[in-house]
Amino acid sequence: METETTPRPTMEFRYLKIDRRDNYAVVRMCKEPVNSMNLDLWADLSRCLEYLESQDWCKGFVLTSGLKRPIFTAGNDLKELYAKTTSKSRFSDFWRAQTGFLVRLNRTKLVVVAAIKGACPAGGCITALGCDYRVMTEKGYIGLNEVLIGVPVPRYWCKSMERIIGARHAHTALMTGKMFKPKEALAVGLVDQVVPEDRLLATAEAVLSKWVKIPSFGVQATKHFMKEELAKQMEDYCEEEIKVTWDILTSPMITGPMERYMSSLGKAKKSKL
């Protein structure tokens, strides 16, 4: 029998920190410098979700950033997408890890609240869209901006955004790579609350605390009705998407713009030194 003095063991993760509350957890992404989402971070997220689902005490979790700087996550690590810095085998593993987590996130019986601090583009945005509720700071931005570097937004990422903000808003945002400021995101329903940074975690935990008190079966079944179709589509399309996306990433139409973009990032870093 667990008492107040009994240690509460958790699994160890490379880039995540888990703080256990009474009947939920706070999961912090801590991959310096910007929580770039590479194969290892996606794998960590999957293992963490699997672990929390296996714990009888856990009814949900808050997903947030453990970085000091105002970044939820900068999105996918471009080294995983740039053909010259990866391989077909590595990319395939990366895409399976990414899709595997997103499928599980949409299917999980746990209640998941995203506490978004600052920047939340691309992979960060699709992760937040897979959560059940999104709280964001007053400063930052969020969106699926892949087209700005010449890469198409993945098919079911588009569907995920459409499901949350509607086809009209999603069409314009996805086609232009729009980054929503917090108040804009709130206005279209991309996030549910906007709060000062010093109230972010407390607000997210307050939302989750209320949610996990609702009888779980009804919540879980309703969530399944709303999200299972999208999860199944993501899962079924994964292997085909790997092939299609790899062909795109290795085409001259993409490698040229990405090379220039990667070069510009390198110059920007040097200018700050």
TrEMBL record:
SUPFAM superfamilies: ClpP/crotonase. GO terms for molecular function: isomerase activity. GO terms for biological process: fatty acid beta-oxidation. It holds the Pfam family ECH_1. One of its GO terms (cellular component) is mitochondrion. Coiled coil: none annotated. Keywords: Isomerase. InterPro entries: ClpP/crotonase-like_dom_sf, Enoyl-CoA_hydra/iso. It comes from the Eukaryota. This is Enoyl-CoA delta isomerase. It comes from Chloropicon roscoffensis. The lineage of its organism: Eukaryota, Viridiplantae, Chlorophyta, Chloropicophyceae, Chloropicales.
